[in-house]
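User: Small ask, check this?
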Amino acid sequence: MTNFLNFFAIYSDVYRQAVPLVGNLLRQSRENTIVDLCSGNGLYMLQFLKSLKELAPGRDVQVLLTDRYPSRSSAQEITRLKNGNVGYFPDPIDAADALRRLPGIHVMFSAMHHFDEEELKTLLQTAAANGRPVAFFDYSRRNLSADVLPLLLVPLLIFLTAPLIRPFSWHQLFFIYIIPAIPFLVMVDGFISRLRSYNCLELSEIIKTLDSFQDYHWESGKFNSLMGLCSVRYIIGSQKKRE
């Protein structure tokens, strides 16, 4: 299921406008490592890194993928593609632990809705306590009236694109064409994700609870993507510049 979600992120380029926002964090900090939280398949970061390097020529930017359930097949695919700038942290690690242990700019795509409000606050507090710049993005939104038709078309889209999804797997094709469990699960996951997603006001209220971190600058907002068909919400945090 995560393979399809990553395939969508790659070929729709839904997070294109996130590139300059993360690029700003690169310019403001001395970090050259991007730590991707809740990576899943993670192959979308190959494209994201390529776009990021176009904004920061000369910077030797590295990406480290992390997940509580690391994808060994994706790690092998990255090795096969011979991209030395992207690696997969080999051990299971949750987002909070990664923020504590791994230096770098921490990003997260399509996963904010997996955390309830208190958990999300804890992640942001952990980032600030450890001096980690963060940028979290999510295209899920609570607008089922607008999204119900696209979600119902998800199975058709999976049927049409399944042979192109990487890493390639006959097992995956079996559960798409013979027993269509994957299309059903992706569609159900889409509905649930939208019910759990945050709107801009909720993200703004979460930021207000972080006032105790006086040396940190927080911002939240959204940008439109896919020609206005969806919008991406985000939270960005970084240490304030010292005078």
Remarks:
- The chain has a mean pLDDT of 86.
